Amino acid sequence: MGGENVKNTIVERVLQLVAPHLCFGCGKVGSLLCPNCKNDIIHEPFFGCILCGMPQGSGICFHHNSPISRAFIVSQRGDALEAAINGLKFNHVKGAARELAALLHDYLPLLPRDVLLVPIPTVRSHIRQRGYDQVELIARQVAYQRGLPLERLLRRVTSTTQHRVSRRERQAQAAEAFTLRDDVDLQGKTVLLLDDIVTTGSTFSAAAKLLQEAGATVWAAALAYQPFEK
Questions:
Q1: Residue 68 burial by CB count (10 A; 0-12/13-18/19+): exposed, middle or buried?
Q2: ∠ CA(102), CA(205), CA(191), 5° rounding?
Q3: Closest CA to 180 of 199, 156, 197
Q4: Which residues contact 12 (CB under 8 A, 6 or more apart)?
Q5: How far apart are alpha carbons 180 and 203 in whole angstroms?
Q6: Rounded to whole angstroms, how far apart are CA atoms 55 and 190?
Q7: What would the pLDDT profile of 157-194 be if each residue is shown by its tens digit?
Q8: pLDDT for 55-90, tens place per residue?
Q9: How far is the CA of 45 from the CAs of 78, 87, 103, 168, in angstroms?
Q10: Antiparallel, parallel or unpaired: β 154-156 and 190-198
């Protein structure tokens, strides 16, 4: 993992000499997210339930019987954070993965060393369009920065997307979206699920249910919360 990151860093430094990065937030030359814009994002965290949006310090409020014990969301989607996520997802700015991972690294609390980092798999058609799975790119960087093991425990088995569908439809789609890798035993393990954006929490909940049934305590982390629009 270290060699790959060193290689990527050298390539990006060469590219910066040819086409210097501009900050997604302020446009300053030098990095995709300058220190000031990173600080602005970190200092406006999202303190709410990922399932209903109500204020809640642990990320999951007591109204829900959820397989997720805790959730960590860096901030609400908007401004520089939204621009960086969109750059990675839609404009092939792969370097944004490291900047977004750094936000998670700075925001997440101290985690146990035996936590397994598990990315939510992206829809395959989107991977083909982009040439990469943006969530896995972010997860690799977080794993490297935190020294955590990354495990691809989930497989996505459907190709449905959740744009312009109701909350109930999102829940139904997510319930059929994943399977767990064969012969997975997670008794006594803590898993940190990772995604880029959370809206209703349906995807996190469906994936967490599978992991919990395999014996895991499940936490969730995402870069941005996007309020659900009916």
A1: buried
A2: 50
A3: 156
A4: 95
A5: 14
A6: 25
A7: 988 776 667 888 888 888 889 999 888 899 999 999 99
A8: 988 999 988 999 999 999 999 999 999 999 999 999
A9: 12, 21, 11, 27
A10: unpaired
Q: Give the residue among 140, 144, 75 at the shortest CA–CA distance from 107.
A: 75
Beta pairing, strands 190-198 & 116-119? parallel
What does the alpha-carbon distance between residue 139 and residue 149 come to, in Å, rounded to a whole number? Answer: 10
Inter-axis angle of helices 96-107 and 35-42, nearest 10: 50
E-strand ranges in the chain read 68-76, 116-119, 154-156, 178-180, 190-198, 217-225
Q: Which residue has the higher pLDDT, 228 or 226?
A: 226
Using an 8 Å Cβ cutoff, are 188 and 218 in contact? no
Tokens of 157: 């088995």
Tell me what the pLDDT averaged over the chain comes to: 90
Tokens (6 digits) for 70: 């805790």
Ramachandran bin of 118, using left for φ above 0, alpha for ψ from -120 to 50, beta for the remaining angles? beta
Q: CA 170 to CA 159: how far, in whole Å?
A: 13
